[in-house]
Amino acid sequence: MAFSAHYRHPLSSRLIYALLGLAAFFYFVIAYGITVVYLRPNVLIACQNDDLNIRDLLKSIYEDAYVYGKHQPNEEQDTRNETSSNLLLESKTTSMPIIDNIDLSTLPHTHEIIPPYVKLEEKMKAVHSHRLAACVIEKNMSTIITAIMCFLEDFVSFLHANRTITSERWHTRFCRGKNEYGSVDAMLEKTKTVLEDWMIFTLVRDPLERLISAFTDKCIYNKEKKESINCYGCHQDIECFVRSVYNRTLTFAHIPSNQKHPYLMEDVHTFPQNWHCSFQTRTNKMKIIKYYSEYSERDKTYVELVKVLQERGIHQDLIVYIVEQVTTGTTFHTTINSDEKKKARATILQNSDLLDMVYSMYYHDYELFGFPKTYDK
C-alpha cells in the first residue's frame, strides 16, 4: 500500500505535545532554580528592610531547607515543637526532693580552699542593635549561647549561610571575630558606650556537674590524638582527672597576676566559674541564669533566657525560632545522661577525698551562685 504525501503518523501530534510539555517542565525547574540561587539574597534584603516580616523569612528558609533535603522532619520533633512554645509563658517543671544524700559541707576537709576571683579572659558575645551581651563560660551551654548571639546579631546572614544554632561549633563558628570581645571594657570602648547601656547575662552551672561534663566531653567523646598529653594525661581515669584539675587550679591561683601562664583547653572548662566574667566587680550588674544539667529541669533555664530576650525587645518570631532550636536539637558534644557521665559521677560520690577536692575547688562557686552542696548517693 502506497502512502499519501499528506499522511501523518497518528502518534506524531501526541509526541509533539509531550515534548512541549516536557520542555515546559524543565523550563519551570530551571527558572525556579535561578530564582532560588540568585533572587534569594534580594528576598533576604527586603526582609531586613521590613518589606517582609521575620516570620515570612523563617518560613521561606524552612521551605528551602526541606526542598533541598537538609532537614528531615519526624513525629517526635513535631511533638517537641508543639510543646516548646510553652516556654514563652512559664516553666512547668518542679524540683525533686533529695533523698539519702551527701552534704559536701559536712565532710572532713583536708584540702586548701581555692581562692576566688582569679581573673581569666572574658568571652563576650554582643547583639549590638539591642545592647545585649553574654559572657560565656565553658561547659555552661557556651556553644549554644554563642550561636544564639550570632543568630541575633545578623540572623539574615546566619540563615542564608545554612547555619543552625545547634550545629555550630566553636572553631568554625559563623560570627568568629564579628561580635566578640575579650572583655567588657573592650566592648564598651569599641562601641563608645557605657555599662548602663547594656544588659549582660551569663549562665552558671552546678560545679560538680560541670566538672563531670568536662571530663566526659574532653576525655572520652572528643579526646585528641595525643592521649599522653590530652586530658592532663589521665586518659579516661576520672580520679586522675579530678586530682589533676585540683592541682592545676591550686597552682594557677597562687601564681602572681603579672606572671600568669597560658592555660590549657581543659583548664578553661574546669577552673572555677567565679574566675570568669569579672564576677568580683560585676556580680550585681549581670543577669545570672542557672543552667540545669538534667532535662527535667532544663525548661527553667530556657524560661529565664526567653525573659532576657523579651526584655531587650528581641522579635517574638526570632525567640520562637531559638526555642524550637534548643528544645529539638543537641550539640555534637552533649553529654547529658550518658553512661560514662553516670559512672564518673558515681566514682566521685563514693570517694570522700575526691569530694573534698571538688568542694575545695568550687567552694566560692557554691557560695556565690547558691548551688546546693548536697548530692544523691
From TrEMBL:
Keywords, in A-Z order: Membrane, Transmembrane, Transmembrane helix
For this record, an example GO cellular component is:
membrane
Spans traversing the lipid bilayer: 15-39
- The source's domain of life comes to Eukaryota
What GO MF terms are annotated? chondroitin 4-sulfotransferase activity
Q: Does the keyword Transmembrane helix apply?
A: yes
Q: Which GO terms describe its biological process?
A: chondroitin sulfate proteoglycan biosynthetic process; positive regulation of response to oxidative stress
Q: Which InterPro entries match?
A: Chst-1-like, Sulfotransferase
Instruction: Write the protein's name.
Output: Sulfotransferase domain-containing protein
